Amino acid sequence: MAAFIATAAGNIQSNPYLPSGDPCGSSSGSAISVAANMVTVSLGSETHGSILCPADHNSVVGLKPTVGLTSRAGVIPVLPQHDTIGAISRTVSDAVYLLDVIVGFDSRDYEATSEAAKYIPVGGYKQFLNENGLKGKRLGVVRNLFSNALNGSTVITAFENHLNTLRQSGATIVDDLEMANVDVISNPGKSGELTAMLAGFKIALNEYLQELVSSPVRSLADVISFNQNNADMEKTKEYGQGTFISAEKTSGFGEKERKAVELMEKLSQDGIEKLMTENELDALVTPGTRVIPVLALGGYPGITVPAGYEGNQMPFGICFGGLKGTEPKLIEIAYAFEQATMIRRPPFVTPFWIDER
């Protein structure tokens, strides 16, 4: 059977399960196309949630790799320290087979891919599609990441049931853990992420545009000017370009930006790294998307799997996240969970772009 691959396309903005539901993230087109059976697998680009969130909201699998495990060459950058390319699919196995194709060293993304190449296992990743992959795993639950936002919801009830399934499948659940500085980590304005992203985006985008063979714009300043001169076409009245303008006002990676990067590194070391090491965890497990900031700050991998549907049929997922290079463990855990639950169903409604006649 031929596989059809779609790349990130955020212009399709209707959730196939609930048309009024938020499809989430700039790779929502990639998730929607898979969820609606338009393609078999797709690729997404994530800086801060743009694989994990669309996958979660559209009842598909999203696999965000360790930064550098896959090449970003040719992809419009946001913040190179956080940018990663990953797989979106209807099953864990499809995502893993796609991951095997896209990982590896690329001279065009030399620094990141040469550093992460050490994590790629001999024989690839499909060997970790193990139905018994939960046996012996230690999974940590940090409730202050999500309890306030989801308290009393259908998602929490389903999550508690899923924890029991994980236990029954051989995992040890280490519950009620506390991660240092969760409130700071979860706020891009306080964690240093926004500061680093604005300056990093301008630098990386200018380099990207200058390398293009043919383009009407060669810098972020050119993009802003183009949008202003084509306001109707670019819908600047509806969406604005405040982020572009803020980024353009930056002047490289100065002392403020270096301190922001150092803060993110320290938050990661004192947060997820310390938590997982001290508790000998194989992965964190959370409902929904609340773990995204934790994984974004340090370039860590994560995989989300369909976990249920709310009363209005809006999907939600369960996310497993780990330290750099722990994709083999995450794949074992996610695949075993998927096989034990088999929750995902096709969309309940006919998408607006399909003619029912």
Description:
The chain is an alpha/beta fold. Helices cover 42% and strands 12% of the residues. It is built from 16 helices and 9 strands. It has a 9-stranded mixed β-sheet, sandwiched between helices. Strand 1, helix 1 (28-35) and strand 2 (41-46) form a beta-alpha-beta unit. The longest helix is centred in the C-terminal third of the chain and has 24 residues, at 255-278. The chain is globular, with a radius of gyration of 20 Å. It starts with a strand and ends in a 16-residue tail after the last helix. Residues 1-12 have low confidence and may be disordered.
H/E element string? Answer: EHEHEEHHEHHEHHHHHHHHEHEEH
Low-confidence stretches: 1-12
The largest pleated sheet is described as: 9 strands, mixed
With strands numbered from the N-terminus, the spatial order across the biggest sheet is 1-2-4-3-8-9-7-5-6
C-alpha Rg (nearest Å): 20 Å
